[in-house]
Amino acid sequence: MGKSLFLSLDGTDLAVGAAVAANFAEAFDVIVLTSTVNDSFGAEKVMATGWASLPPAAAYAGELAKLATGYARVFAVSAMWSKDLLPRAAGVADAACVTDVLSIESDTRFTRPMYAGAIVATVEVSAPQTWFTFRPVGFPAVSDAGASVPTETVAIQVDDSAVRNIGTRAKEGGRPDLSAAKVVVSGGRPLKDAASFERVIGGLADALGGAVGATRAAVDAGIAANELQVGQTGKIVAPDLYIAAGISGSTQHMAGIKDSKLIVAINTDGDAPIFSIADLGLVGDLYEVLPVLERELKKA
Amino acid sequence: MKIVVPIKRVLDPYAKVKPGSDGMSIDSGGAKSEINPFDEIALEEAVRLREKVGAVEIIVVAIGPAESEEQLRKALAMGADKAVLIETTTSPDSRAVALELESFVREQNPDLVLMGKQATDDDSNQVGQILAARLGWPQATFASEVTPGSGSLTVIRETDTGTETLQIQLPAVVTADLRLNEPRYIALPGIIKARSKPLEKRAPATALQSFVTVTGFTAPPARKAGKRVANVEELIAELKAAGSI
Ligand SMILES: Cc1cc2nc3c(=O)[nH]c(=O)nc-3n(C[C@H](O)[C@H](O)[C@H](O)COP(=O)(O)OP(=O)(O)OC[C@H]3O[C@@H](n4cnc5c(N)ncnc54)[C@H](O)[C@@H]3O)c2cc1C
What we know:
The complex is a heterodimer of chains A (300) and B (245). Chain A is of the alpha/beta class. Chain A is built from 7 helices and 16 strands. Helix content of chain A is 22%, strand content 27%. In chain A, the strands form 3 sheets. In chain A, strands 5-9-4-1-2-3-10 form a 7-stranded parallel sheet, sandwiched between helices. Chain A has a 5-stranded parallel sheet with strand order 13-12-14-15-16. Chain A has a 3-stranded antiparallel sheet with strand order 6-7-8, with no helix packed on it. In chain A, helix 2 packs across helix 3 and helix 4 packs parallel to helix 7. The radius of gyration of chain A is 21 Å and the shape is globular. The model of chain A has no long low-confidence stretch (mean pLDDT 96). Chain B has one domain: HUPs (Rossmann fold, 3-Layer(aba) Sandwich), CATH 3.40.50.620. Chain B has 6 helices and 15 strands. Chains A and B meet through helix 3, strand 5, strand 7, strand 8 and strand 11 of A and strand 3, helix 3, helix 4, strand 9 and strand 11 of B. Strand 11 of chain A pairs antiparallel with strand 11 of chain B, so a sheet runs across the interface. Flavin-adenine dinucleotide sits at the interface of chains A and B.
C-alpha cells in the first residue's frame, strides 16, 4: 500500500517505469535526475533536479532517501548508476532493497535472477519501504504518454566534500545505446586487437544500424571498452537480433542475452555451448563470415 | 593503514546449477565452493596496496557457515594478516549482512573497506553500498583502478557509458569490479603455510534479521537450440524470412 516513486535517469525510461508502476494500485510520482520531460505517462507528479549529470551516489543518496520518505516503494531501471545509488539510499532509509526484479507478483513478492540467471528466485519483502531495480524486458513500455503535467523543480542537496568526480570518460557517440538497441553484434576472445574488433564487429553493427557488444574476455584483453561487456556483470540486452561472433557461450555471457528475440551464433567450434541457445548457428570463421555478411547487407 | 576485506563463500561460478527438486534449494551437482571472485579481486588489491605503500594491515572477515574457514585460510595465504569468521547457518539478506559488517567495521576502525561488488550466487550488488550508507562513509563502486593518496584514494570506476574518476576521502568503502586486477594464484603448500596466521571464530553481533526472504527457486524459461545454416547465403535468407533484416 502507498504511493510509488520512479527514479528516471533522463526521461527516456519513463514509459517502462510507468509499466512497473501499473503493478501497484496507488499513483506514482517521478523524479527525473538528469533531464526534463514533457509527457507524464500517467504519473501524478513529475519532478526534475535540473542536474546535467549524475553526482557521485554518496553525495546525494541521503537527501534522496529523505525526499522518498512516505513512499511505499522507490524503483529504477537496472543499470550501473541505479545499482550504485539505490542500495545506498535504501541503507540510509533502512528500507528493503531488491536487485533486478523480473516480475512483480504482489506488493511484497517479486522474482529476480540469481546464479548468473540460472535460477529465478521468488522473494518476499517485509519492510516499511522497498527500493528496487528492475529488468525492463518483463515490463512492456506503456504506450499512452498521458497528460502532460508541469514539471516541478526539486532541489536535492549535493555534498561532495568526501567524494568528488574529477574526470569522466564517455563512449564516443554514433552507435545506438547497447541496452536499448534493436540489433546487437558482439565479439569475443578471437578478435585479435581493438582495430580488428572495430573493423569486423563494428563494421557489421554499422551495416545493421546496431550496437556493439563484447564478452568479458574481449574487454579484459583490451580489445573492447568496458561499457560494452554483456553478461552477468555487464549489460543485459534484449534486442530483436543478437549476433554472437567468436563467443563460446559461457553461463555468464548467456545471462545477458537470453531475452533476445533471435540469436545468431558464428563459431568455428560446432560444439560451442552458444549453439545450444542460438536460433541460427553457422559453424565458420568470423573473419570470413562477417565481412561477407556486411557486404551482402550493404548491397541489399 | 588498515583494510577490512569481507569474503563470501560461494559455489564455483563455473558450476552448472539448477533448482533442487524441492524448489527450495540449489542443486549444484556437488560443485566446490570458492571465495567469491569479486572478493578475491578486492583482497588482491589490498595486498597490492600494501606492496605499494608499505605498512598495511589486512583483516578478512566472512559471515557464513563454518566451512567458510576454507576460504579464509586461502585469503590468509594470499596475504591477509588476520581472519575472522562470524558463524551463521542462516542466509541473511544484503541489509542484514551489511549491518553485521557495520558492527565489525566499527570495532576494527579501518581506513578502508575493500570488497567485491557482488557475490556470484545471489548477484545482489548491495552490501558495499548499504554498509557505506550505514557508516556514513563515501563509496566508490565498480572500481577498476585504485591509486592511494594521502588520506584519500583516486578510484577509476566503471559506469554505464564508460568510466569516471573519483577522488574519495578515507575512511571509505570501495567495491571491486572484474578489471581491477587478476588475483595471484595460490598453490596448496601456500595455504598450509598460512596455517599459523590467526583465525578467530565468533558469533554474530547483530540479529541478522532479513527484510528480503527467498521463498522458492525455479528454472528460467529455457531457450532451445535452433537451426544450423551451412553458409552466409543461407544465413541471410533465414534472417530475411524471420524479418530480422
Ligand atoms: C565472476 C565472473 C563474472 C563474469 N562475467 C561475465 C560477463 O558479464 N560477461 C561475459 O561475457 N563473461 C563473463 N565472465 C567470463 C566468462 O566466464 C567467460 O570466460 C567469457 O564469457 C568467455 O568469453 P569468450 O566467449 O569471448 O571467450 P572463449 O570462451 O575463449 O570463447 C571464444 C570462442 O571463439 C571461438 N573462435 C575462435 N576463433 C574463432 C574464429 N576465427 N571465428 C569464430 N569463432 C572463433 C572458439 O571456438 C570459442 O568458442 C565472467 C566470469 C566470472 C568468473
